[in-house]
Amino acid sequence: MPNPWDRQAGACDDGEHDRCPHRSGSSTRFNLVQRQVEHGVGLCPCSCHSACPVAMSAGPQPVPTTEWYESCICPGAELTRRRMEEAGRDPRAITRQAEERRRKAMARKEALNAARSRAAGKNQDEIREIYTAELRARGLYAGGGPRTDADVAWIAGNPLPMLRLEGKGLVRIGKGLRDFARSVKQGADDLAASAEEQPGQE
């Protein structure tokens, strides 16, 4: 069965190898294990890219967009990168934001576990004080709100507020993924169309 990512880019098809950005498609998926959106690009298999470090390290699946963005040395990639930056779609910034969200989520989980280990025999107000102190110790916002209230109730032995909050969060994630997929597809279509244009073409 042919690999759907083994598709030559239009510029190389036309023999204009110096204009090819080395990417020939994009893919977006939600990683259920990591609970994060992952975005990758398919690579043009033309031999003109054989010296590119991305081509040397790539397997049969799409490579992470950041890997292509940071490492591709093909002449056509620079124009595509510049257009992505002008459009506000620098994948490095997106990756940094995702990493910061993961760091905060891990720190919040540590704070919750630490508070639970100290919660025996405490009432809910005392648990809240312990939990907010653990949050502050990890540089997290400790000013209250629905998430903090649900966490405190969970520590105190009432899981219902947390379950309701997680349910609402799953609905938001679903809507966000749908909107994100539409945005990525539109951006990929725009980039593919612009990559086919001649430099300086009106």
Number of helices: 8
Give a short account of the largest sheet: 3 strands, antiparallel
| Global Rg | 23 Å
Tertiary shape: elongated
- Low-pLDDT parts are 198-202
Question: Which class best fits the helix and strand makeup?
Answer: mainly alpha
* Percent in helix: 55-70%
Mean pLDDT: 78
Topology order in helix (H) and strand (E) letters: HEEHEHHHHHH
Q: Could you tell me the number of beta strands? A: 3
- Measured by DSSP, the beta-strand proportion falls in 5-15%
Largest sheet, order of strands side by side? 1-2-3
What's the domain count?
2
Give the termini distance in whole angstroms. 40 Å
Protein topology:
Elements: H1 10-13, E1 23-31, E2 36-43, H2 53-57, E3 63-64, H3 65-71, H4 75-86, H5 91-117, H6 124-137, H7 146-155, H8 160-195
Antiparallel strand pairs: 1-2, 2-3
Helix pairs in contact: 5-6, 6-7, 7-8
